[in-house]
Write a structure and sequence with these properties.
CATH class of the largest domain: Mainly Alpha
Oligomer: single chain
Largest sheet: 3 strands, antiparallel
Strand content: 5-15%
Order of helices and strands: HHHHHHHEEEHEEHHHHH
Number of domains: 2
CATH topology of the largest domain: hpI Integrase, Chain A
Strand order of the largest sheet: 1-2-3
Structural class: mainly alpha
Number of strands: 5
CATH architecture of the largest domain: Orthogonal Bundle
Length: 316
């Protein structure tokens, strides 16, 4: 028997309208298209709204705490419609679907909507995350045949760039201040930051930018050997760089899948192990302090001991 949806009571918003307004607000704040489509849009339009229709949840008045708890419970217990094999949703997937709903309702409450609660986030088991040692990163660079690919590995491993940030670099993004060199990087939400480069890497990047062909597309530092429309070289794509890094990982025989984010993750981990201030690290990485705290709590007891010992010894 089909569910009959109620109309919004006076003062209550319909849930679909609320989602539309929220996503428009996210666009106005400058969130990237990728974030909107892959995270917020998918979770809200493909997961939350269909569930609301099935359950007869039409307005904000229907969003009681018990109803929102049922949303999380249903996700944890039902079979995934997205899985060809019909596997249950993982807690990580449920977490990624529930979090945007919580953010939606927090936004709605801030603008004066009467919201009955928040869906609870399932507790996730803390996993040991893979990292590459500095020796493994050296092997990865040694496996590259061209200076372009070697420099790409180093920018991921020594500057912690994201994939999209690296492929978007242009010659004008190399900034010098006295005897120091920085990269102007455009991160998530199109926010700019300056990322330091040590002298040796800075010289290699500058040399690469000087030796680039004059007809490389868009002034990019990294471009492929393929031409666009017969006259300009095509910039390296994100998929092309990711594939190249993966191939280097196999050639270096590291025994684990290698991808650009693993190099960024390894860089952040190494900086924390060496005692770098997390606030400074977050600023350079273009990440929030909360993300650093939540996702890089996997350092060992030995790391904690060494960090405390350095602090105590230096203070004497």
């Amino acid at each position: 028997m089909p569910v009959t949806l109620k109309t919004a009571a006076p003062g209550a918003s319909s849930v679909p309208d609320l989602v539309d307004d929220y996503l428009n607000s996210c666009r106005a704040r400058g969130l990237s298209v990728r974030t909107l489509e892959n995270a917020y849009g998918f979770a809200l339009n493909r997961i939350f709204l269909p569930w609301c229709r099935r359950e007869g949840v039409a307005t904000t008045d229907d969003l009681s705490q018990s109803t929102l708890d049922r949303f999380t419970t249903d996700l944890l217990s039902r079979l995934s419609r997205q899985s060809e094999r019909g596997k249950p949703l993982s807690k990580a997937s449920v977490h990624s679907y529930v979090r945007p709903v919580r953010q939606l309702l927090a936004w709605a409450e801030a603008r004066g909507e009467a919201v009955g609660g928040r869906p609870q986030l399932p507790k996730q088991p803390r996993r040991e995350r893979e990292v590459l040692s500095r020796a493994e990163i050296d092997r990865l660079e040694d496996s590259a045949r061209t200076e372009r690919d070697k420099v790409i590995v180093r920018l991921f491993a020594d500057c912690g760039l994201r994939l999209a940030e690296l492929t978007g670099l242009s010659v004008e993004d190399i900034r010098r201040g006295g005897n120091r060199t920085y990269l102007r990087v455009r991160g998530k939400g199109d926010r700019e930051r300056l990322v330091p480069m040590l002298p040796d890497l800075a010289r290699r990047v500058e040399r690469l930018s000087r030796n680039r062909t004059a007809d490389a597309a868009g002034g990019r530092i990294f471009y492929s050997s393929r031409r666009l429309h017969g006259d300009t070289y095509e910039p390296l794509t994100e998929s092309g760089v990711a594939q190249m890094v993966g191939v280097l990982g196999k050639q270096a025989q590291l025994g684990k899948p290698v991808h650009p984010h693993l190099l960024r993750h390894s860089w952040i981990t190494e900086m924390l192990r060496r005692g770098m201030n997390p606030i400074q690290l977050a600023a350079i990485a273009g990440a929030s302090e909360k993300v650093i705290a939540e996702h890089y709590a996997h350092l060992s007891h030995d790391d904690a001991y060494d960090a405390m010992a350095r602090a105590l010894v230096s203070g004497r």
